[in-house]
Specification:
Elements: H1 3-13, H2 16-28, E1 38-41, H3 42-48, E2 52-56, H4 66-79, E3 84-88, H5 92-104, E4 107-112, H6 118-126, E5 130-133, H7 138-148, E6 154-157, H8 163-180, E7 186-190, H9 195-207, E8 214-219, H10 224-231, H11 254-262, E9 265-270, H12 272-286, H13 292-302, H14 305-311, E10 322-326, H15 334-343
Parallel strand pairs: 2-10, 3-4, 3-6, 4-5, 7-8, 7-10, 8-9
Antiparallel strand pairs: 1-2
Helix pairs in contact: 3-13, 4-5, 4-8, 8-9, 12-13
Bound molecules: ligand PLV.
Length: 347
């Protein structure tokens, strides 16, 4: 058999799934993200009453899953001649943009709202980008970023609402399939503007796992997805009152609502106190420090919500396993955790 014959023979042997994976790798080339570990957590499994696997996105460069989608978006923009990136952010999307921009040798401006910590602004500046502080919440910073992006050759990097972002985020599900082999009983993740949700749904559809239920967790006071689901249309929150600032988009993207109609998406709210308690417990159990945005899905596992969802019939009583996307977040230090506890009246 000649070379071509061998290739054809090989192609026939490959499953449809393998061909798709090859296509995806070719399309993405070398991304800026890492293939992250999937670890079983004894402590979380005990709390949730089901085997829990952690997809550790907190170990990505810049500390969150954001680099997957944003890295891919920026690479594509660079190919089209982008001269400068502008990103409005609660922090992590900006850090990912700064990282990708540096790798691509392109300058960037990151617009953050006034509720962003000085430590995060400093981290951004250390990445060599220009930081502008504008507006009270992310939605205000977004308007400023759009105005800046009017400049010729400048490209706005949306933190959660773009198909390329979702395609980049979807890579984490393909990795999950490679690591786990078997389908998990449910995936637990945080929702801010809905980019992570849209990416995970895209990934599930790609690997043929579209029937895996997703538990989409928000904190009360940053609950724009829950409010929209209940209303059956996009709802804009009057303000963000939760300490989980990285979940603080007043309106989710349209795609987030569509995802809820395409698969089984269960929306669950947790209290700020539960999210912060979960951060502390997780630090003790797994020696990893994450933001309240990530404390929210952790709280779902630590605080008995899984059992409640099972009792209410939203989740099967005999789940094989649960995967939690440990979305991470860089805007947290020990002092910040102590300050959050004091703010919420916790011991
Ligand atoms: N953070 C966005 C939006 O902030 C940002 O600008 O960084 N977990 C972490 C650690 C995050 O940083 C975010 C989003 C999320 C979860 C939620 O992801 P999303 O927005 O795709 O649902 C206002």
């Amino acid at each position: 058999m000649g070379d071509l014959g061998l290739q054809l023979h090989d192609m026939k042997r490959k499953t449809k799934e393998e061909c798709k994976m090859t296509a995806v790798v070719e399309r993405h080339g070398r991304g800026f993200h890492l293939v992250t570990p999937v670890l079983e957590s004894i402590a979380l499994s005990k709390a949730a009453g089901t085997r829990v696997y952690m997809k550790l996105e907190n170990v990505q460069p810049t500390g969150s899953f954001k680099i997957r989608g944003i890295g891919y978006f920026c690479q594509e923009a660079a190919k089209k001649g982008c001269k400068h990136f502008v990103c409005s952010t609660g922090g992590n999307a900006g850090l990912a943009t700064a990282y990708a921009a540096k790798k691509l040798g392109i300058s960037a401006t990151i617009v953050v709202p006034t509720n962003t910590s000085q430590a995060t602004v400093q981290k951004l500046e250390e990445q060599g980008v220009k930081v502008e502080v504008f507006g009270k919440v992310w939605d205000d910073a977004y308007i400023k970023a759009l105005a800046l992006a009017e400049t010729e050759g400048w490209v706005s990097v949306h933190p959660f609402d773009h198909p390329l972002l979702w395609e980049g985020h979807a890579t984490m599900v393909r990795e999950l399939k490679e690591s786990l082999g078997a389908k998990p009983g449910a995936i637990v993740l945080a929702v801010g503007g809905g980019g992570l949700l849209a990416g995970v749904v895209a990934g599930l559809q790609d690997v043929g796992w579209q029937d895996v239920p997703i538990v989409a967790v928000e904190t009360k006071g940053a609950d724009s997805f829950n409010a929209s689901l209940r209303a059956g249309r996009l709802v804009t929150l009057p303000q963000i009152t939760s300490v989980a600032k990285s979940l603080g988009a007043k309106t989710v993207c349209v795609r987030a609502l569509e995802c809820a109609s395409e698969g089984q998406v269960i929306s669950q709210l947790v209290e700020d106190v539960e999210a912060v308690q979960a951060i502390e417990q997780f630090l003790d159990d797994e020696r990893l420090l994450v933001e309240p945005a990530c404390g929210a899905p952790l709280a779902l596992l630590y605080t008995g919500y899984v059992q409640q969802l099972q009792q209410e019939g939203h989740l099967k009583p005999d789940l094989d396993s649960i995967v939690i996307i440990v979305c991470g977040g860089s805007s947290i230090q020990m002092a910040g955790l102590q300050a959050l506890k004091a703010q919420l009246g916790m011991k």
